[in-house]
Amino acid sequence: MPHTSHTHHRRRAPLLAAAVAAATLLLAGCAGPSTGSQSGASDGGARDADARPVVLTTFTVLADIAENVAGGHLRVESITKVGAEIHGYEPTPGDIRRASEADLILDNGMGLEAWFEQFVSGLDVPHAVVSDGIEPIDIREDAYSGMPNPHAWMSPLNVQVYVDNMAEAFTRIDPAHAEAYAANAQAYKTELQDVQDELVQSLEALPRQQRALVTCEGAFSYLARDARLTEKYIWAVNAEQQATPQQIASAIEFVRENDVPAVFCESTVSDAPMRQVAEATDAALGDVLYVDSLSEADGPVPTYLDLIRHDADAIVAALSGGQQ
């Protein structure tokens, strides 16, 4: 969640500080399995048998991108589980122990992981912010007005910057495989460009009056920019509080005035507020969109490239009434 002096951040800070302090005391004595939450994470014995450097990411999307760049030379894990809501995540003592044992920590930056910054700064572990160098789109509404929209990975063009930052960070901790990281990065960037071209082509096919993207969270600013869609959302950034009546009314007004045929919600939040918008306007509720988390391996979006393709297909199908 973006940096802010919002009330619930102030309430949470002492609790996080206490958790960090308690976890620090436990680090030396912790010998049990990690409570870390990536489905691929394993116990300490398995990690000891794997001599590869450990790269820890804050959420599953970053882990998948990092695995493509690492190419098997690094052990990549995610702090949060598949399906987790990233913005308000509460780190555990096990998370802190895992972070202290990592060889490199990657986070998105742009204020997304305020929960993680509480303890990363106190660890003697290399750290890279993968969004460094990206021009942010500022949020224009709600309490977060003027702050950067952190969802930069929703643009495959931006993720090419992520990839370069990852390759550079991987080379610093494992220079022996520098050439492999550079080659993997270039190959994946080619795939990202292909997905970007597919996304723009598919969304540009929509008639002008259907080129509006209405979502629960304002997580699609970069995708909307790339595909030249008009963006409208109920709330700017996922937060603890429910959508307000004013936010829902504003979305209803937008859908009515622009005759928007379909609206959407994301996989990690309740779609109840958007259902109210759909019922009040007769707009269809499109297929669920994915932003903050991948799915399990047998789900609809097991990789980042699958996530972008799924979202683009879902948006086109719903806004065109299934006629594309």
Write the layout of secondary structure elements.
Elements: H1 7-26, H2 44-49, E1 54-57, H3 60-70, E2 75-78, H4 93-101, E3 104-107, H5 114-120, E4 127-129, H6 156-173, H7 178-204, E5 212-217, H8 221-227, E6 230-235, H9 245-258, E7 262-263, H10 272-281, E8 284-285, H11 304-319
Parallel strand pairs: 1-2, 1-3, 3-4, 5-6, 7-8
Helix pairs in contact: 1-4, 3-6, 6-7, 7-11, 9-10
Explain what the structure shows.
This protein is α/β, with parallel strands linked by helices. The protein contains eleven helices and eight strands. The strands form three sheets. A four-stranded parallel sheet has the order 2-1-3-4, sandwiched between helices. Strand 3, helix 5 (114-120) and strand 4 form a beta-alpha-beta unit.
Please count the beta strands (DSSP E, at least 2 residues each).
8
Radius of gyration: 20 Å
Let me know the largest β-sheet: 4 strands, parallel
On the 0 to 100 scale, the average pLDDT is 84
How much β-strand is present in the residues? 5-15%
- Largest sheet, order of strands side by side? 2-1-3-4
Helix content: 40-55%
State the end-to-end CA separation: 35 Å
Uncertain regions: pLDDT < 50 for 5+ in a row? 1-43
Pattern of helices and strands: HHEHEHEHEHHEHEHEHEH
| Silhouette | globular
Discrete helix count:
11
